[in-house]
């Protein structure tokens, strides 16, 4: 019997090594494509020639290798990865500009960034920085935020406490200890545990790359949980873990404050997810020079150079299937007519709900495998945003390159739960969290681009149900009742149904499928993978991996690994050393 166990174990190890180290497919990072920095383009008309290329059937390239639905970072990144190995890819975006949550818009002379507030892990020669450099040919530049980069504000004006959050692994800890003398042990343990748990994320990726039978074997035998600290803590709430570490309620709140970046109150949040965010920002936070639209602006030419295109005002209304129920292309609504575009591979960055519930035929939606995946996820909470333009420079207005997380008190769970469960009118009187930042203050090119002006962004959460009755109204001509409610919640806010219209979020969510504890079960992560139950149809972006810019980018790497039959995550990890040592063949 023991011999059989040993043989099976060795076979499992051999298969896992094959998928971890597998390099049979083409490598998008084989050549270092960074180029000398070119002058930044500030002329909006010139940028729009790249970002706002409207859909026409005549613009669709012939003999496509793949179609990507959605131009968020998950969609653009997979398109660039495929383009780098010679694939001709068409990206289709329903909005009037490319970028998804990385797009910007201009109102009354002010430019607003809708989704990128700050990004971590961008030190030179870190894997994510190197990947982004390759995906933009080294043209996307980053500016570090101030230090402290976050400030946590607790309490009413008469009893307000402000806790600065510093970057730097040692300084983060040291400064936190200065704020909370006597809590040194709790702070050390919180950081130690977060690092340990975050380091186990590798198995989440592996579960999505391994053959399904092997992934399920790891799940059902309990090996996945035993092998990964990430999954061992995935079922534990942030509240439970933090409450075991300290009795200090302000410290508990400061340990939890960043939950707003993935959208779950601490008692419903997985400690594993939270640990990733803490570690993501330990080395600092950055903002793209020139604003978020620079991201798409520098990725689209790479897609085009390989013969592909990124076309906007291209609402995909369904995925085309053949008689064998295999994806063979998409249908794009052009006015009242459908334009059919064909390709051997279809990749959706539209999210799992849009893909399965809106883009597939009804009879296919009912497939048990699709229904199983849908039963494992739920919609995330809706987002509220206010975009404020102010005359004056950052110096005149006292604006800095940092973020404020403002809470009425330190009982975060109680505040959030009461707010989300109330009706819109009641909850408008007790908004539990406000995120405030100045994108213009973070961007060193802003004074040249928009002299004498500044912007401020305010973000919070809202229940989609509060606004649902007005979802079919014209976006800029909704009823008086709707306008009164949104003014009551946050004056001048863009609501969940605004998100529904502009970024295609089915329930106005800003982080895709919900990031609560169930999202991090081993079974879900072995089941929801880039491959869908429909042959030749793949998922990319946030719903494949995790939310946010980094999460969606990781989803694209995972999708690319499957399509190209190569572990791109391993290539990404090796990039810093190869680029630094010049082992990548330089672009001619």
Automatic annotation (TrEMBL):
InterPro entries: Amino_oxidase, FAD/NAD-bd_sf, Retinol_saturase. Its cofactor is NAD(+); NADP(+); FAD. It comes from the Eukaryota. It holds the Pfam family Amino_oxidase. GO terms for molecular function: all-trans-retinol 13,14-reductase activity. It is a peripheral membrane protein. The keyword Membrane applies. The keyword Lipid metabolism applies. GO terms for cellular component: endoplasmic reticulum membrane. Its EC number is 1.3.99.23. Residues 1-22 form the signal peptide. Residues 73-556 form the Amine oxidase domain. Keywords: Endoplasmic reticulum, FAD, Flavoprotein, Lipid metabolism, Membrane, NAD, NADP, Oxidoreductase, Signal. It is found in: Endoplasmic reticulum membrane. It catalyses: all-trans-13,14-dihydroretinol + A = all-trans-retinol + AH2. Its main location: endoplasmic reticulum. Belongs to the carotenoid/retinoid oxidoreductase family. CrtISO subfamily. This is All-trans-retinol 13,14-reductase.
């Amino acid at each position: 019997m023991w011999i059989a166990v040993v043989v099976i174990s060795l076979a499992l190890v051999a298969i896992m090594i094959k998928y971890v180290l597998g390099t049979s497919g083409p490598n998008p990072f084989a050549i270092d494509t960074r180029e000398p920095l070119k002058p930044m383009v500030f002329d909006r008309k010139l940028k729009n020639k790249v970002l706002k290329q409207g859909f026409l059937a005549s613009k669709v390239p012939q003999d496509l290798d793949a179609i990507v639905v959605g131009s968020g970072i998950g969609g653009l990144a997979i398109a660039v990865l495929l383009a780098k190995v010679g694939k001709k890819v068409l990206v289709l975006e329903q909005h009037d500009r490319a970028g998804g949550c990385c797009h910007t818009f201009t109102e009354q002379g002010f430019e607003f960034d809708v989704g990128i507030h700050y990004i971590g892990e961008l030190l030179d020669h870190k894997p994510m920085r190197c990947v982004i450099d390759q995906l933009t040919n080294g043209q996307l530049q980053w500016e570090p935020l101030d230090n402290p980069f976050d400030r946590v504000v607790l309490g009413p004006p008469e009893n307000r406490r402000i806790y600065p959050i510093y970057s730097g692994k040692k300084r983060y800890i040291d400064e936190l200890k200065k704020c909370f003398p006597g809590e040194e042990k709790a702070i050390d343990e919180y950081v130690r545990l977060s690092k340990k748990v975050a380091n186990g994320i590798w198995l989440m990726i592996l579960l999505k790359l391994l053959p399904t039978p092997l992934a399920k074997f790891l799940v059902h035998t309990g090996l996945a949980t035993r092998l990964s600290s990430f999954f061992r803590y995935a079922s534990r709430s942030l509240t439970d873990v933090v409450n075991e570490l300290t009795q200090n309620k302000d410290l508990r709140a400061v340990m939890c404050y960043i939950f707003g970046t993935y959208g779950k109150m601490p008692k419903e949040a997985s400690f594993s997810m939270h640990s990733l965010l803490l570690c993501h920002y330990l080395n600092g936070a950055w903002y793209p020079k020139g604003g978020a639209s620079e991201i798409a602006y520098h990725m689209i030419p790479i897609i085009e150079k390989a013969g592909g295109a990124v076309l906007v005002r291209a609402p995909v209304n369904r995925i085309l299937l053949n008689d064998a129920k295999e994806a063979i292309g998409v249908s794009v609504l052009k006015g009242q007519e459908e334009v059919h575009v064909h390709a051997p591979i279809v990749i959706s960055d539209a999210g799992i709900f849009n893909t399965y519930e809106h883009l597939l035929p009804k009879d296919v939606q009912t497939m048990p495998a699709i229904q199983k995946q849908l039963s494992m996820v739920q919609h995330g909470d809706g987002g509220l945003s206010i975009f404020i333009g102010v005359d004056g420079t950052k110096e005149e207005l006292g604006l800095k390159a940092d973020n404020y997380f403002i809470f009425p008190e330190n009982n975060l769970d109680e505040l959030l739960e009461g707010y989300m469960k109330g009706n819109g009118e009641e909850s408008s009187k007790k908004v539990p969290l406000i995120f405030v930042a100045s994108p213009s203050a973070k961007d060193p090119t802003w004074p040249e681009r928009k002299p004498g002006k500044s912007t401020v962004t305010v973000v919070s959460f809202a229940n989609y149900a509060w606004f649902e009755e007005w979802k079919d109204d014209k976006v800029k001509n909704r009823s008086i009742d709707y306008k009164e409610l949104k003014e009551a919640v946050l004056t001048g806010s863009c609501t969940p149904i605004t998100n529904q219209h502009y970024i295609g979020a089915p329930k106005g969510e800003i982080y895709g499928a919900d990031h609560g504890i169930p999202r991090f079960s081993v079974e879900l992560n072995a089941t929801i993978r880039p491959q869908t139950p429909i042959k030749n149809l793949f998922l990319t972006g946030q719903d494949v991996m995790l939310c946010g810019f980094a999460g969606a980018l990781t989803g694209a790497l995972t999708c690319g690994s499957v399509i190209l039959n190569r572990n791109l995550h391993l290539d990404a990890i090796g990039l810093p050393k190869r680029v630094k040592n010049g082992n990548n063949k330089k672009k001619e």
